[in-house]
Amino acid sequence: GIILIAINPYKPLPIYEENVISTYSGHETGDLDPHIFALAEEAYRQMVRFGKNQSLIISGESGAGKTMSAKYALRYLTMSRGCLRDSSMEEKVLASSAIMEAFGNAKTTRNDNSSRFGKYIEIGFSQERVTGATIITYLLEKSRVTFQAKAERNYHIFYQLCASATLPELQGLGL
């Protein structure tokens, strides 16, 4: 299949805005420069053409930008193809991420907020429009609960719970 190597520039760039989504929408792979939107468009076209499920596999090291690439692909699909129910589908699908990040993100030597999760996002379509999505999350580093390398930290939730231990609503937890 098609492979795109993306590099995290560690700063916002204007290459993910609505006008760029419009540029890639409806174009064949290779018509324009390589981009995460081109991959999302190709997966969508193959799904419609052959009536079969498609996958985008986003892989890389810690801090490479995998989560952001997944968000951009989802944004592309919801904005270029539309949603049957709501135009804020991307926000709804990813709304759980902030809560889940406390339970599965940790400080590593390369990234202060590194996800220790593997994620599988399944996007539902009807009449060629996005109808919803499901995120399945897999905790990849269970060993981090009992051991962290020097200069690294445990999952954020442990520090957040300890910092909040004096709140009345947490008094019964024995923190």
UniProtKB/TrEMBL annotation:
GO biological process: actin filament organization
GO molecular function: actin filament binding; ATP binding; microfilament motor activity
One GO cellular component, as annotated: cytoplasm
Listed SUPFAM superfamilies: P-loop containing nucleoside triphosphate hydrolases (SSF52540)
Residues in Myosin motor domain copies: 1-175
Family: Belongs to the TRAFAC class myosin-kinesin ATPase superfamily. Myosin family.
Gene3D superfamilies: Kinesin motor domain (3.40.850.10)
Residues bound to ATP: G60, E61, S62, G63, A64, G65, K66, T67
Domain of life: Eukaryota
Protein name in the entry: MYO5B protein
Entry keywords, A to Z: Actin-binding, ATP-binding, Motor protein, Myosin, Nucleotide-binding
